[in-house]
Structures
1.
Amino acid sequence: MIEGGCFCGAVRYQIAGALGRTSACHCSRCRKAFSGASSAYAEIPDGSQFSWVAGESELTKHPFAPGWDLGFCRTCGSTLCGIVDGRVHGVTLGTVDGDPGVRIEVHTFVGSKAAWDHIGGSAPQFEEGHTGANAGGESK
Ligand SMILES: [Zn+2]
Ligand SMILES: [Zn+2]
């Protein structure tokens, strides 16, 4: 069971299965929306059961890309999830508790990363988008 939640603890979720594809988009929009160097995002595969444990009513949405909303805690502002067609599509890795067993698979929009951002690890880096990664809906 994977669990996670926001900074203040009001909003909590759990995922019964494993996380799916992971990516970190370093574009300027993702840096703002995810308040960090990148989006650091994991998709939830169809077979994995996502559920809110607490504070679903505290979740607020903001449009991010066509068809996409991001879900935030209205109290502390943590970005918790991507919402596509009203369904939770994936979670921000920064809100996952402990080690969920996945690693960042691709870095996208590295060509526009922040000057202070140093990308470590061995995952492939793409100057722009990559078809295998759609965190934030940036890549086409
Ligand atoms: Zn919160
Ligand atoms: Zn991005």
2.
Amino acid sequence: MSADIDCRFTIIGAGLAGALLATLLAKRGWQVDVYEKRGDPRIAGYAGGRSINLALAERGLHALRSADADAAVLQRAVMMRGRMVHFADGTQRLQRYGKDDSEVIWSVSRGELNIALIDAAESAGARLHFDRRLEAVDFDALTVRFIDDRDGASSQVDFVALLGADGAGSALRAAMGARADLGERFEPLGHSYKELEIPPAADGSFRIEPNALHIWPRGNYMCIALPNDEKTFTVTLFLPNEGDPGFDTVRNGAQARALFERDFADAVPLVPCLEDDFERNPAGLLATLYLDRWHINGCAVLLGDAAHAMVPFHGQGMNCAFEDCVALAAHLDREGDLSLAFAAFEAERRPNALAIQAMALENYLEMRSRVDDADYLLQRELELQLAQRYPRRFVPRYTMVTFRRLPYAVALERGRVQRELLVDATRGRDTLDGLDWDWIDAEVRKRLTVLETEH
Ligand SMILES: Cc1cc2nc3c(=O)[nH]c(=O)nc-3n(C[C@H](O)[C@H](O)[C@H](O)COP(=O)(O)OP(=O)(O)OC[C@H]3O[C@@H](n4cnc5c(N)ncnc54)[C@H](O)[C@@H]3O)c2cc1C
């Protein structure tokens, strides 16, 4: 973007994507103002929102590196090597995510991450305005109106370009939708979640293996637990909205305890405040948001959850939102005109958002019902062997999504081809002994091209 074009940016939302985008744009010397509906979390304390902690993977880390924010974030992150699966019979098994400790994910606190990014944005020169909730946009006069929810005061500012990082319930998206048909479709999953806590042990240490993402898969529902640096775990119970069990039948603390005693027995002693946590914490809804269009000419563009909220089962919503920030900053750098930059951003990112949304939905099924299934475990065993035998051709889909940065759409397509191959090679078998390796080698070469090294 040439310096003589008036490219002042007005970012809506100082959440994860908004604060990172502000940093990237301010570092390029552009004027950046960020408006956030909540108070400054550094003064008022972090007001929460969605999950308490999140899994940070390579795509997100790469984006943080480009904002020089990775070191501050990793300092307090907890490494997770794999899934610790808690089977119904009380046994546990660690399923590694990657080949070794170079392929791990990180559990980070949403509040700490958001504060680190707000600090980074301010240091880079962005101006942050808290307690400013976007209320209305006038696309003809190029003005926006904000409300301070503490006293109802209203303020108005003019803008050149609005960048919408105001999350799944985006007010900017609603304003854009009133102006042009964005083709919005919201698909609820029919399942919701509730958070509970595993406190530290009496000696102050973690109560269960800290370097893992714990999963209790139970078919149509599940629990997971991610570690926090203060030696606690945040447990998330995912249940259908209706059914047995479902949030319509498990409605209070006593019913939650009965469910845990029946289905998550080894977790019961770990969650001493089960009833209180269950009754105090709200159930969060899960849904996928699809839009045909993310921008209005050179005036406004959406990114992150505002453009493509997804279900959380691949742990990629934030990672994808961070990738959006890097991509949008690069398109703004490259193009001489805002509408071209927004169009190029949407053309690059929309197919990839659709791909990770699809993979996130598929992963729910995998986490809650396949990680303890014999066919799945046999296919996974072969997958690991093929990944070693063909490191540049056969890369497990989870690895492509989590530890590499190749486009999500490529990961989805190659993952489909690989899955078919694993199913074909293991059909009717219960062990890998006696596999026809000549056939498998020929099929791998025929079906999968060599991946570029930078991927
Ligand atoms: C249970 C759960 C677990 C998850 N786990 C993971 C995970 O492990 N890994 C991962 O990568 N992702 C995960 N995600 C997804 C991740 O939380 C989101 O993708 C991410 O928060 C998106 O960032 P964002 O900045 O686009 O939106 P948000 O983080 O929602 O930020 C939006 C910001 O805009 C502000 N805002 C809203 N409305 C207005 C307004 N009108 N005016 C001004 N400001 C406004 C909000 O206050 C907020 O600060 C999870 C999500 C859930 C629900």
3.
Amino acid sequence: MFLRKNALERIAKERVLYERHPHGDIATCLIYPNVYRLGMANLGFQAVYQIFDRDPHVAIDRVFLPDPDERELMSTRGVPLHSFEHDRPLSDFDIIAFSISFETDYLNVLAILEMARIPLRRGERAGRHYPLIIAGGSAVFLNPEPIADFIDLFLIGEAEEMLPEFLVRYHDCRARGIPTDLRLAEMAEVEGAYLPDYFTPSYDEAGRLREVAYSGPKRPHVNRRLIRDLDKFTTSSRILTEESVFGDMYLVEASRGCQWGCRFCAAGFMYRPIRYRSPEKLVAEAERGLTERKVIGMVGAEMASVPGIASIADAVADRGGRLSPSSLKADCISPELARALARNGNNSVTIAPEAGSERMRKVINKNLTEAEILRSAHMMIGEGVENLKLYFMIGLPEEQDDDVIGIARLTAKILEQARAAKQRIGRVTISLNPFVPKPWTPFQWDPMEESRSVKRKISFLRNHLAQLGRIELDPESPREAYFQTLVSRGDRRVGRILERLNTERRYDSGAIWHGLTAIRREISSGAGDGLPDPDFFVHRAYAHEEVLPWDFIDHHIAKWFLRSERKKAHHLHQSPPCDVVRCRVCGAC
Ligand code: SF4
């Protein structure tokens, strides 16, 4: 049928770059809770797939969220979701593993379970024969609570570190004949495993989290796991397909974490301390990639600080390829890097000033001056890069209208500087993202700005940019940011909102927004069916002394440090970047 045909065509077009392992007896289905072209562009998903595939005890398969037309067809024909590679019902597997990079995909987790005809709530599956449902990935590192009622066990940490351990234990439990219902407690012994059943939240009269009672055998914290030495593992494209959103690239992960400590950025805190792959490893991986693709996509939070990046870009260009870094911090772009990136026809580069004014860049700890941004733009355009993409955020804590106008002022200066130097500049795109407060950052206590106010700011920025001519403004919708904030900062009760959205089949951003608006309206009219108010998690400042939904995870970052960073933001004080050799201040090193 149609769905199977689609899957077989996709599999036929894939190119697997490693030797696959003969199948074992633990039937495991790895799920990316979004569509195929996004899942296959995700290095984390590919890395986890290979870990499963290499385990001699595992027989691995995949599932993606069906495309909208496939979904439509499944619903009209009443067809349940089957696995991608072997067309098996999901309930046939021993383990279902969700790899979740983005918290907005939490809603898709519910949709997929339902399409697979598996009861959503853990309690409804208890005592019946269903697969063990686990979840990992960067979204659940930060805050797994919105889906805690639907998942049996989470793995909080980097998969290379803990997934093999988990599989050894699972295999051992099976070999010892431990029944499925008793296996969970054994699996929870793996360091970094989070068993939601052990943690019971309670709330005060104002609806805030009062405490989380712990009933497990160990300490009431989950120690998130990280690998120390990235060189021990290769995280690059393992399966290539042109249908992936980065289909023309071979992706290589260069680093995890970030040394700069921008106060809004989850990656800069959750992956501490910063770890880089060695230049030798990166060149070797890039060389391998060049046998498959002309473009090497270098992935990580900030690429201009990667040791040896200019010579890596040169090595790629020498072999006729092109390095495409995910994002560059303007002041770290050296003339050598600008020259190397511009070779072999690289005509677009992304720079991330994040804020338009010097004042706001101090608030967010960007450690970046206007002169540095202008210098880097001048260098890149001078070397032949035609198109610039500039990333900014809007609605940041402490932001005033003048800071937003600062985005247009800075863009005008970049254009003016290019004109004065008679440089040829092509397309300038302003990518604008509403601020979303993220757990484990100094801004975790801050609310998201009201959508109305963000929209007003976007509109007057658009008017200011219109005066500059050919500038493309690409704003993310405040409605999408609202939902992202809800699932980033929400506690376990947000699961009920997800259930409601899933029941009403509200999956795209417009439908989600209308669903959330309806819930808010019901609550304010005294109904609401026991649902929590989404605004409570989105537009409320959390108090410093409040218990936060993600407090039970130990990310090794002292809370006082995050508080002091937040205080520094209010006073426009910046902190220096990480010095992993000498510094011990935040607790992560
Ligand atoms: S201890 Fe210092 S160097 Fe290490 S992650 Fe924290 S701030 Fe950075």
